[in-house]
Each structure stands twice: as structure tokens, then as C-alpha cells.
Design the sequence.
């Protein structure tokens, strides 16, 4: 029998769909179920990683809060995005991936029963981490429009700020690809001021923006630098998923608590990876701009293939959602049909927020446009009555 802490912790769905897809071993299968990418990390990061394998200092628990060079790089990077000067010694630490940083921050700020504001739909892994930390998710809807997702600012204005201890936001968001406008960020900032709560910015994909959108960092709003904690990762923008390195940057008093949790949780990071992440952040040839161009082209092809269905255009990120409720299906039913009838692996959004059961996610970061073409015909066959 599971302990009460796990009562509301659900599967994410990707683990099951990924295992099914791996088990088929079919080269014709379109792998659209998982946030992977076939685009390579920065060359500088690869070179530093290779050298670190033979570096005895990289084979160590120390330093517990991360290499100085990586903490410096992370603090400087977040500072550039936010227009805020951060002291790497007291306001930056390295985590074992971005999501480890998210959990460590939540454990540092939540008392049991505290509410955490999140969007709906949202990555179920974030929901699970809020619950593991004793928090209660409080959802503000993302509204699907023909032009993309919009934050329901009217619904946000009606949420009682009293029980909310933190707002956990992401732009671009997973799995929707929703990107907040300046006005939408302003509504979130105003709510956090009224709630007197933390704003946790999950910035893992903040520069994966399409159609010439620009980064808007919540700490750049007046008097918000002391309220915003930024959690970043090398996984998406730098295409360094397997390195498992992230960072937490924010006010010193909070970072001191996050450091205590971090040492008590994962203890340390991947030693042979941290220097490579610093090199990626500091490289003039990080490949982000070129990668975004490739991902946007894939998004455009995917949207064209899905023109006869209700797909919501993403403004950034690695994935998009298709609403299958008009077809009389749940996401789980559609996902099953796609795998069995069309050789398409796509994850149902079951548990990914109160409204998410009607959606299937398609990840476009890991399949070239040549393989994405023809997807619409596959769906027409698989989803027909």
C-alpha cells in the first residue's frame, strides 16, 4: 500500500507510450511522444565533456552547490534576460536538471496545504512535484484559440490570492507551447503582488520562441526581482538532455534554503557535465538561433498536416496539442488509435491538468520535416469512425 504522499501522484503517460514505441522497434513509427531532439549540443560543450572524463576533479561530490564557473555563467545568463545583477556566490546554484531545481524550490517555500498557481493544461511532472512538496495546485486556464493559447486573465483576477504561496509559471509552456504576452505576464505579476507570493519562473525553453517573439522575464517588471526565482536547464535550449544540469537563480535568502534542500536531496550534480554547460552558456556559437529555425519549420509543417483537425498553434517550445473531443474521442482513445492504426506515437494528456483529457500531444523537436509530411493522411485513417 502506497504512503499518503503518493496518493495523488500520477503517471505522466510518456513512460508507457515510450516503452510501447521502443518495443515495436519499427523504423516507420513516428516518434512524437517524448521531448527529445535530434539536434546536437554546442560543439564547445561536447569538447569540454570529453575532456572532463579524464579530469579527476570532475569525479567528485564537490563543490556541493556546483562549479564556480557554472554558477557564474548561470547567474550572468539570468541577469542578462531579466536585466538584474545577481551575485553568483549567494544567488545562484546548480541543480541536477531543471526539474530537480523546481522540486528543491518548492520544498523550500511550501507548508502543507499551501496553494501553487499553475496554468491548465500543464506538464503533469510539475503538478506531481507540487503535490510531493505538500502543495495544492490552483489552476488558471489557458484558452485555446485558432491563433494559439492565451492566458485567461479574467479568471486569474477572480482567484483568491490568500492561500497561494507561489505561482509556478513557464513560457513557453509545456505541453502547449503557450507564450505569455507582456500584458499576460503583467497579470501574473499583479497577482503575485496581491498574494505576496513567490513567482517561480521555469525558464527551460524561454528562448525557443517562434515568429520573432522576444523573451519577457518576470523579474524585469518593477520591484519583482526580490520575488522571482528563475529555474533554468541545459536540456532544451542547448539540446543537452542527458547532461542533467540546471540552475536556480534568485534572492539570496531563498537560495540559502534551496541550498540546504539541494544538499539533502540529490547532494550534487553530474560532475563531468557542469563545465560543459558553462561552456554552452558562454559560447558565441550556442546554436540556439539555428535550432529554433529548424523547430519552427517543423512546427509549420505539422500545423499544415493537421489543418483538418483542431490543433492549437504553439508560439514556442517543442510540442503542440490537438483537441480530439470534436471527434468524440478522449486523448487516451486517440493515442491508442494513432499507435495501432497509423504508426504514430503520441502521448495522451491524461492528468496534465483539469481540462487536458481532450488533448493529444505531438512533439516536433525530434522528427525531420521529411518524416512529418504525410502525418495528416495517417491521422485521417486512424481517427475515422
Sequence:
Amino acid at each position: 500500500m502506497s504512503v499518503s504522499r503518493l496518493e495523488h501522484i500520477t503517471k505522466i503517460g510518456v513512460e508507457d507510450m515510450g516503452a510501447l514505441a521502443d518495443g515495436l522497434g519499427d523504423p516507420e513509427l513516428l516518434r512524437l511522444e517524448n521531448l527529445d531532439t535530434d539536434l546536437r549540443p554546442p560543439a564547445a560543450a561536447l569538447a569540454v565533456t570529453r575532456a572532463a572524463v579524464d579530469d579527476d576533479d570532475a569525479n567528485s561530490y564537490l563543490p556541493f552547490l556546483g562549479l564556480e564557473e557554472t554558477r557564474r555563467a548561470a547567474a550572468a545568463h539570468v541577469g542578462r534576460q531579466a536585466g538584474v545583477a545577481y551575485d553568483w556566490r549567494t544567488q545562484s546554484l546548480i541543480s541536477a536538471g531543471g526539474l530537480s531545481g523546481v522540486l528543491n524550490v518548492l520544498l523550500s517555500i511550501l507548508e502543507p496545504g499551501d496553494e501553487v498557481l499553475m496554468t491548465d493544461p500543464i506538464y503533469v511532472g510539475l503538478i506531481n512535484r507540487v503535490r510531493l512538496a505538500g502543495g495544492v495546485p490552483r489552476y488558471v486556464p489557458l484558452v485555446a484559440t485558432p491563433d494559439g493559447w492565451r492566458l485567461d486573465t479574467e479568471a486569474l483576477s477572480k482567484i483568491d490570492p490568500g492561500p497561494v504561496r507561489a505561482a509556478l509559471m513557464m513560457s513557453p509552456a509545456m505541453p502547449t507551447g503557450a507564450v505569455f504576452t507582456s500584458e499576460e505576464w503583467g497579470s501574473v505579476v499583479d497577482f503575485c503582488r496581491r498574494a505576496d507570493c513567490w513567482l517561480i519562473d521555469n525558464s527551460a525553453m524561454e528562448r525557443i520562441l517562434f515568429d520573432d517573439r522576444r523573451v519577457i522575464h518576470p523579474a524585469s517588471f518593477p520591484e519583482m526581482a526580490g520575488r522571482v526565482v528563475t529555474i533554468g536547464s541545459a536540456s532544451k535550449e542547448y539540446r543537452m538532455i542527458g547532461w542533467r544540469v540546471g540552475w536556480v537563480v534568485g534572492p539570496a535568502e531563498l537560495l540559502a534554503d534551496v541550498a540546504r534542500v539541494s544538499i539533502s536531496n540529490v547532494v550534487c550534480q553530474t560532475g563531468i557535465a557542469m563545465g560543459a554547460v558553462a561552456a554552452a552558456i558562454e559560447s558565441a556559437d550556442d546554436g540556439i538561433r539555428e535550432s529554433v529555425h529548424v523547430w519552427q519549420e517543423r512546427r509549420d509543417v505539422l500545423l499544415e498536416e493537421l489543418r483538418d483537425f483542431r490543433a492549437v498553434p504553439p508560439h514556442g517550445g517543442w510540442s503542440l496539442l490537438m483537441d480530439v473531443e470534436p471527434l468524440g474521442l478522449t486523448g487516451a482513445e486517440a493515442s491508442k488509435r494513432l499507435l495501432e492504426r497509423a504508426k504514430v506515437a503520441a502521448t495522451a494528456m491524461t492528468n496534465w491538468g483539469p481540462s487536458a483529457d481532450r488533448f493529444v500531444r505531438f512533439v516536433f523537436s525530434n522528427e525531420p520535416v521529411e518524416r512529418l509530411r504525410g502525418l495528416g493522411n495517417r491521422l485521417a485513417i486512424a481517427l475515422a469512425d
Notes: The radius of gyration is 20 Å. The chain has two domains: 4-41+287-382, 44-282. The mean pLDDT is 97. Residues 4-41+287-382 form a domain with the Aspartate Aminotransferase, domain 1 fold (CATH 3.90.1150.10).
